[in-house]
Design goal:
InterPro entries: ABC3_permease_C, FtsX, FtsX_actino, FtsX_ECD. By secondary structure, this protein is α+β, with helices and mostly antiparallel strands. It contains nine helices and four strands, in the order H-H-E-H-E-H-E-H-E-H-H-H-H. The chain has a four-stranded antiparallel sheet. The longest helix is centred in the middle third of the chain and has 43 residues.
């Protein structure tokens, strides 16, 4: 096979269809950027679940004067009874540690958390419930505390913080699925655009293809320049998307978010480098497959 002739045909094809090639590059770039972002977001969600679920606490809220509890506000006796239950042989095997937070401590924490928010001006210490914060050895055993302490005298509610985390992660998962959906649509558009570009290129050179067939050129020899054209365009778009993903992780996620939200372990550059080759492979494979399919009809000239 004469590689010089093949590359000459590739250069001519790219030059003749420059605008379509640019379109393929842009569509591939955008679609694979969405794919990479969705994959990294899933990795981030997985890391956050592992970190926060292990640290999620169970909150045992005691009744206040503003709550509609049957026995009224929690007393020293009911608080001592709940503490005794937490230390009992039935519950202590499930508990790693627990501590008690009184109303003043809860109020100070609330004011710090909602500093600058108008709601902080309307809350008084009497409105904040006294709370037992419980760390479990296995967070999946939170139902044991809920069943044992719910309805106990002085207890307003027993809340597993993982329920709040589930809501947050469901939103993040929805965002990730949306990115995946957009990426799939864009990838389909990229495949169709690559196929259209190859067909236009083949149509403009149909006489040359006919002559090559008459002189005995093999299908492989005729197909190769067109496939390379599609792969080159998609490869450029893939590389651009990889550059954007790497810059996004390093400067936005690691440097910007990482320095401002130190309580979250964000995805690393090592994970980004694992995603980047996958994006390149996806772009090249889709381009080669769509170009190969598009050129087949012209091999019967």
């Amino acid at each position: 096979m004469r590689f010089g002739l093949i590359w000459s045909e590739v250069a001519n094809g790219l030059r003749r269809n420059l605008s379509m090639v640019v379109s393929v590059v842009l569509v591939t770039f955008i679609s694979l950027t969405f794919v990479g972002t969705a994959v990294l977001l899933q990795l981030q969600i997985g890391q956050m679940k592992t970190y926060w679920y292990d640290r999620a606490q169970v909150a045992v809220y005691m009744c206040t004067e503003t709550d509609n509890c049957q026995g009224g506000a929690a007393t020293e006796q009911t608080i001592a009874a709940v503490k005794k239950q937490l230390e009992s042989p039935e519950l202590s095997p499930y508990i790693q540690k627990f501590y008690f937070q009184d109303q003043q401590q809860g109020y100070e924490q609330f004011q710090q958390q909602f500093k600058g928010n108008q709601i902080a001006d309307f809350v008084t210490p009497e409105m904040i419930p006294q709370t037992f914060w419980v760390n479990l050895k296995d967070p999946n055993n939170s139902a044991v505390l809920t069943e044992t302490l719910s309805g106990a005298a002085g207890v307003q509610s027993v809340v597993d913080q993982r329920s709040y985390l589930d809501q947050i992660f469901s939103i993040l998962n929805a965002a990730s699925l949306t990115a995946i959906g957009i990426a799939v649509i864009m990838l389909v558009a990229a495949v169709l655009l690559i196929a259209t570009t190859i067909r236009l290129s083949a149509f403009s050179r149909r006489r040359e293809i006919g002559i090559m067939r008459l002189v005995g050129a093999s299908n492989r020899f005729i197909q190769t320049p067109f496939i390379i054209e599609g792969v080159i365009a998609a490869l450029i778009g893939s590389v651009l998307s990889c550059v954007v993903i790497a810059l996004l992780v390093q400067f936005f996620v690691r440097d910007f978010l990482g320095n401002r939200i130190q309580s979250i372990n964000f995805v690393s550059m090592e994970q980004a480098w694992l995603v980047i080759p996958v994006l390149i492979v996806i772009g090249v494979v889709l381009a080669a497959a769509s170009a190969n399919f598009a050129i087949k009809r012209y091999l019967k000239v």
